[in-house]
């Protein structure tokens, strides 16, 4: 019995005199009552506060990237145009249309009007209109938009027609007006003579205009 207790006493560790060291007590050394130190971490270096210029590297990178993309795009366009030239295709030539000669146009219209000689009014309308348009285009006499009286008043002061031509033109227009407005019905010979008078006036004016052009090369036709 005594041996057993002595053996147990020898196996038990011998603690130093005084109170035992408690881990809880050790962690609370120099700590105010009711507070805990918690985890102990390393001390960090002080950091500078953020500034408004932190984003400029990104902007610069974006600008450089856009510049590179634009340069590559221009190079691609130039290379594509160089490798694949645009074929303009055959040049289409517009047909050159000559301005119809006033005399030929008037003669043809008067000739066509002879098909209406059995109808005095339409016939006189066509023949007189043909001669009026010719005088406007060839001699710059404002004939189609004016009444017969206004037109005759103009040609009296014009030097593009001589006296005999003015007299025949006046008689021609008066007969045409009588048929158109007074409903007169002249015979076929009278109507045929109206066409002959129109043809004769056109031929005379054309002959005089050609002669005037030969004598005065710098003078243009149609001047009053």
How would you sum up this structure, described in words?
There is one protein chain. This protein has a domain at 102-215: Four Helix Bundle (Hemerythrin (Met), subunit A). 58% of the residues lie in helices and 0% in strands. It is built from 8 helices and no strands. The chain has helices spanning 2-11, 23-27, 56-83, 102-113, 120-139, 148-156, 163-181, 188-215. Helix 5 packs antiparallel against helix 7 (163-181). The model is unreliable at 1-31 (pLDDT under 50).
Ends apart, CA distance between termini = 166 Å
Question: What does the main sheet amount to?
Answer: none
Count the E strands. 0
Shape annotation: rod-shaped
* Cα-based radius of gyration, to the nearest Å: 60 Å
Class of secondary structure makeup: mainly alpha
**What percent of the residues sit in helical stretches (DSSP H or I)?**
55-70%
How many alpha or pi helices? 8
CATH class call of the domain at 102-215: Mainly Alpha
CATH architecture of the domain at 102-215: Up-down Bundle
Strand content: under 5%
Mean pLDDT: 76
Order of helices and strands: HHHHHHHH
Q: If you consult CATH, what is the topology of the domain at 102-215?
A: Four Helix Bundle (Hemerythrin (Met), subunit A)
Indicate the low-confidence ranges by residue numbers: 1-31
How would you name the oligomeric state of the polypeptide chains in this document?
single chain
């Amino acid at each position: 019995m005594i041996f057993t207790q002595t053996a147990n006493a020898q196996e038990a560790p011998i603690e130093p005199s005084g109170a035992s060291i408690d881990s809880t007590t050790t962690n609370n050394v120099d700590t105010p009552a009711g507070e805990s130190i918690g985890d102990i971490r390393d001390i960090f270096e002080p950091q500078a506060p953020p500034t408004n210029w932190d984003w400029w590297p990104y902007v610069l990178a974006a600008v450089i990237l856009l510049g590179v993309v634009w340069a590559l795009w221009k190079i691609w366009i130039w290379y594509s145009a160089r490798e694949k030239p645009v074929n303009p295709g055959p040049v289409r030539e517009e047909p050159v249309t000559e301005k119809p000669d006033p005399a030929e146009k008037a003669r043809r219209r008067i000739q066509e009007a002879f098909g209406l000689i059995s109808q005095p009014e339409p016939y006189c309308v066509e023949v007189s209109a043909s001669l009026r348009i010719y005088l406007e285009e060839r001699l710059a006499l404002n004939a189609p938009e004016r009444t017969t009286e206004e037109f005759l008043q103009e040609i009296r002061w014009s030097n593009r027609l001589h006296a005999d031509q003015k007299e025949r033109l006046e008689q021609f227009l008066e007969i045409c007006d009588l048929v158109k407005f007074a409903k007169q019905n002249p015979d076929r010979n009278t109507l045929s003579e109206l066409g002959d008078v129109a043809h004769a006036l056109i031929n005379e004016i054309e002959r005089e205009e050609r002669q005037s052009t030969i004598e005065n090369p710098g003078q243009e036709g149609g001047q009053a």
